[in-house]
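The freezer alarm interrupted the setup, so I double-checked each line after restarting. Inputs confirmed:
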Amino acid sequence: MRFFEYEAREIVKRAGIPVTDYGFTRSADEAREIAERIAGPTVIKSQVLSGGRMKAGGVQFADTADEAKAHAETVLKLEINGHMPRGILVDPKADLKQEYYLGVVWDGVRKKPVMLFSDMGGIDIEEVAEQHPDHVGRMHFSSRTEPLDYLAKECIAQTGVTGRALQRITPILSRLAKLFLERDMTLAEINPLGELKDGSFVALDAHMDMENEARPRQKALLKDLEIGDEETREAREATEFEIAGEEVDGMDHRGVAGNVTEFDGNLGLVIGAGGGSLTLFDAVRKFGGEPANYCEIGGNPSVAKACGLAKLVLQKPGVDKIAVMMSIVSNTRVDIVARGVIKACLELGYDPAEKIAIFRIPGAWEDEGYKILDKYGVEYCDRSVSMHQAAKRAVDKIGAAA
Amino acid sequence: MTVAENLFIDVKVDDSIKNDPAITTKLVDACPVDIFAAGESGSLEIVTKNLDECVLCNLCVDAAPAGTVEVVKLYE
Amino acid sequence: MSILLNEDTTFIVQGITGREAVNLTKECLEYGKGAKVVGGVTPGRLGREVHGVPVFDTVEQAVKHHGGPIDGSVVTVPPAFTKDAVMEALANGIKIIVIVTERIPRQDVAQMVEFANECDARIIGPNCLGAIVPDVIKMGGIGGPAKDAAKAYTPGSIGVMSRSGGMTTEISSTLTAAGLGQSTAVSIGGDAIIGSTYTELMPMFEADEQTEAIVIYTEPGGRMEAELAEWVTENNSRLPIVAFMAGKFMDEMPGMSFGHAGTIVEGKADTATEKIARLKEAGIEVAEEIAEIPDLVKAQISKKQEVTA
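Predicted 3D structure, all chains:
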């Protein structure tokens, strides 16, 4: 779950890392007041969960409070990559001497968190790592104990940074590492950390991602930041169709029939499980089919849930038929899913034989499932028909999007 | 078009056990998908909307006196 | 032979009284030569039995009751309690732990792995279905009920490793249908951080005489495949590898995760396209469809044999 910059800065501040005297607001008048308080040149920054802010004109510089207000008005109305800003940050314009990059991420191969440091801050760290590898320091640390200062110091020293900068940045990086663990982040970045002409070091921008799985135990922080459970902060906002999918999955606690994602195509998919859905979605596209949706069935959902999911997909505008496909199931039952999808057709007044282009779910209770499918004349296949062949059959029957 | 609430499964219960609170309790406990419910005075009721959730576990058949509960597959 | 497990492996099930765990226990007891499930742990349920398996409050009680070290544990407790359950198992000398639970924060996994390393133990998962040695033993829900597992898995020479539990069975079943049995199939888990990556299991397959080739199922997200490609390049492995990559469509949707928590693309190196390129550079064959895998495996095996001949 990604945080807005103003939230990320608050998190950083709470960890004892110095930040500028910024202000967050949703109104231009308040922006003026903040600029007056700052009493000097300011930066007006759009608060959106999207990259490319600067390019899109979402960052403006102002010399006076009136100018700050005028920029605030423009920026508040500016859509960036399809996102309207949550508000704006009014930040004192920093008198910069040098910019640094500080970050902490997980290394899935070493299975440890790793601190990252660069004396080439302000730009994309992947780029720096590629072009100037000697300007990037890396230091793994244990997730079982509080990260110690000397590890941060070694990380910074790898880039050749020494003197006062080394002394001052060391505790900042180790605090960032500490907050990374305490707050269950998957990414904690200060970029840039500015060394100002007055000799102080302050975080000028911060980027934080919290692990979704850890949200339940970070409730207190999220509440402080006024982030409700309904705010998923996915890469894009959930559509009505996707929200309806969540509701289907929430009907009862048996298994999963959800994780719905909307696409533009005409081929309705009722697919599963995790890996099976990924494979089948690719397969449909490989044969020229255009899926209307992605979804996942797994963990042996109830008939009602399978039915609800199939109904949702069948009712999506532009969908004429659905393909019901999974990799071999061992927990989810073939007969239960068969009942669910057939019921969905009948309750909507359709003939299952007509609406279900193909049913390819082999595995647990398949014999029972096939009896049901036979009775309603639905075309099905067993494990001797591969997932790709089944997907092709669906595409052949449904056809490419108009 | 209206569709029956249960399309796939029906449960037939012999009249002799319909008003036996002890058997009702056993059936309510046995069924993992809540097909049985206790009516007033402990009479046995079938929850029609849950019939299609039947997982064919036969626990109800085992819990009741032999031959008094029958699970019928409507697709056979 | 096999890796990780054999017919003598003893294990417990932590969280044994849960609905899914009850099924899993039965499946393991009934599959192959019958797993030696020597106990179960659910706090507060001491004295109960699940399919004849005695239930204890603590792992220590289970070990004491068994009268000697227990090899493994299948952990199926809710995410908030998983770390503690795994630490308990490790502290009581258990050396192979299959974590079935999903939705465990990475930090917890990292901490479990660190402790496991200190204990010289191995974790499989989380978010996995465990491992199976065809016709011998299964540890975890892999393959489902004994009769279904028997349909998909047969003994043979192919090692299977997969980030998806279901696809482990789909791939093994496809191999079985083509006359290629499996030495051991491992569902390694779908999370961003897992106890055992492909690379960490490779030396075990390498040392297993029965294994002649490896099939892996992979997804976008993480550096696990790049790690394998590096390992293969550096170690001159005797085992040919065939890979299948699912989720290619996700390359167009950075920042979103589908299927498994670990699939989120966080950098350029995480994409399907990039991974396929890395694998191919290392001489790993990448199948376009599952159905192609058996032929690719057969071709790779005979190619290796020609080289050695």
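Quick read of the result. The longest strand of chain A covers residues 96-107.
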